[in-house]
Write a structure and sequence with these properties.
The protein has one domain: 2-enoyl-CoA Hydratase, Chain A, domain 1 (Alpha-Beta Complex). The radius of gyration is 18 Å and the shape is globular. Helices cover 47% and strands 17% of the residues. It starts with a strand and ends in a 10-residue tail after the last helix. α1 runs parallel beside α2 and α2 packs parallel to α3. The chain has a seven-stranded mixed β-sheet with strand order 1-2-3-4-6-8-11, sandwiched between helices. The chain is α/β, with parallel strands linked by helices. It is built from eleven helices and eleven strands. (2S)-sulfonatepropionyl-CoA binds next to β7 and α4.
């Protein structure tokens, strides 16, 4: 078993299964540019080593799996989720990895990290896992592909409730609405997840890989007209140029509730 610690991520291979452990507890595994680049590097290395399945996890027993996008890296008046943003690059790296990426979750998953685990191919959590998508708490506009991820995963009505309330969805409800593939007792979580990973790895990796790519292409097959895309981008620009977004970031950094004005 080889193990590499790159700053905020530990990557290792166990029985030919790749394991990426988010490892920045002081910042609640916030998805900083450096953490995301380390995750992408680990996936690229696993791809080169022809590792068939990858598990993304946090350290055992954490209360927060990931606090989402690193708010300290968000810039008021700029698109927070542009195509080349680290989070978006990370989500695409997960989608394009040649084999299944399994998210193994204990603790709270917040904001962009919720998009990340929903972008993984399989999601397995224990009773402590919760899932919250939180742009409205920061006055932030989510992006087209991100909203689509949620609609694809939980359906439009549940996705609306998640986005509008920004409330953490507890594990039992997450299982009921399809966020979790499996809800497993904490003590069994690691064994259950590794057993599934090894089971998938025992099948034809070429067949699995091509079927994963078919899912990616079909789930993205929602053509919208250039005018519709430009309208969405225009609406998003109003939000990320707003007072509320600047206030959302400032309030978090000052550790106080935001004073939104709806402008
Ligand atoms: O004060 P220090 O230096 O110790 O740092 C504190 C927090 O500032 C830091 N931290 C973060 N830093 C950057 N980005 C974050 N998202 C973030 N979250 C936390 O970590 C240190 C410990 O935080 P603390 O004391 O609050 O820990 P806690 O255990 O009491 O509470 C854990 C959380 C996760 C409940 C709490 O930290 C929290 O509510 N964090 C923000 C969660 C959130 O709203 N995430 C969304 C980020 S924006 C995003 O992902 C998308 C763009 S969107 O908004 O669209 O969803």
């Amino acid at each position: 078993m080889s193990s590499t610690q790159t700053g905020t991520v530990i990557s290792e291979v166990q029985n030919n299964i790749g394991i990426i452990t988010l490892s920045n507890p002081g910042k609640r595994n916030a998805l900083s540019q450096s953490l995301l680049m380390a995750m992408i590097d680990a996936l690229e290395e696993f791809q080169l080593q022809r590792v068939p399945v990858v598990i993304i996890r946090a350290a055992a027993g954490v209360k927060i799996w990931s606090a989402g996008h690193d708010i300290a890296e968000l810039q008021a008046h700029e698109d927070p989720l542009g195509y080349f943003d680290g989070l978006e690059q990370g989500l695409r790296a997960i989608q394009r990895f040649h084999g299944p990426v399994i998210a193994m979750v204990q603790g709270g998953v917040w904001g962009g990290a919720c998009d990340l685990v929903l972008t993984c191919d399989i999601l397995i959590g224990d009773e402590s896992s919760t899932f919250a998508i939180t742009p409205v708490k920061l006055g932030l506009p989510y992006n087209v592909s991100g909203v689509q991820h949620f609609i694809n995963r939980v359906g439009i009505n549940i996705a609306k409730e998640m986005f509008f309330t920004a409330d953490p969805v507890p594990s039992q409800r997450a299982k009921e609405i399809g966020i979790l593939n499996h809800l497993v007792p904490a003590l069994e979580l690691e064994k259950f997840t590794m057993t599934m990973a090894l089971h998938i790895a025992s099948h034809s990796s070429m067949s699995v890989s091509v079927i994963k790519e078919q899912f990616r292409l079909l789930s993205n097959a929602n053509p919208i007209s250039p005018e519709t895309f430009e309208m969405i981008q225009g609406l998003r620009k109003k939000v990320y140029r707003s007072h509320d977004y600047a206030e959302g970031i400032k309030a978090f950094m000052e550790k106080r509730p935001p004073a939104f004005t709806g402008e």
